[in-house]
Design a protein that fits this description.
With 171 residues, the protein is of the alpha+beta class. It has four helices and five strands; from the N terminus they run αβααββαββ. A hairpin with a 6-residue loop joins strand 2 and strand 3.
């Protein structure tokens, strides 16, 4: 058996580099929350819906899954309402999505600068009315929904959606 020995002193200019460390694991809270501000315009509402679907896909819910489609509809309706009814010139609206990894429930929050809340109960438009069905969709699709004041100004309209019991373990 050969043993290598050396009397060389380590060269201070050639000190070994520390071993690279793997990238830290992302915080689970970062993976289960998405928040962003958007221009209070139809284009901003459309972008918010598209990014919500993309985030649902990143969370393991394919775009064609029932929960992702429901989230897309809810985000679309809530952001369209923020643009149409809650728009204050010069102010954006904000979207926040939160996924509970244990239950699969998704909370959608859309905040705007107008403090006036939507009706507590959806109104039932006539058959010939061209609008007014958005909150009916929210009421049907969401497990629960409501509003809360936003400080210092505005309101947040939120909706929660849960997976149906028969979809546990699959998206």
């Amino acid at each position: 058996m050969l043993h290598a020995t050396t009397n060389e002193q380590p060269d201070p200019e050639r000190e070994p580099r520390p071993a690279p460390h793997p990238a830290p694991e992302p915080d689970s809270a970062q993976l289960s929350t998405f928040a962003m501000q958007f221009a209070s315009s139809p284009r901003g509402a459309r972008l918010a819906r598209r990014l919500a679907v993309k985030r649902m896909d990143q969370w393991g819910c394919p775009p064609a899954s029932d929960i992702s489609c429901s989230v897309a509809l809810l985000v679309g309706e809530l952001t369209a309402n923020a643009v149409r009814h809650g728009r204050v010139p010069g102010r954006d609206f904000a979207l926040r999505l939160a996924l509970d990894p244990e239950t699969g429930a998704v909370r959608i929050e859309v905040s705007d600068a107008d403090p006036e809340p939507p009706p507590a109960r959806p109104v039932h438009p006539g058959p010939d009315d061209e609008s007014g069905r958005g909150l009916l969709l929210v009421d049907i699709l969401a497990t629960r929904w409501g509003t809360s004041p936003r400080h210092p100004v505005g309101k947040t309209v939120w909706a929660e959606i849960e997976r149906e019991p028969w979809t546990w373990g699959t998206w």
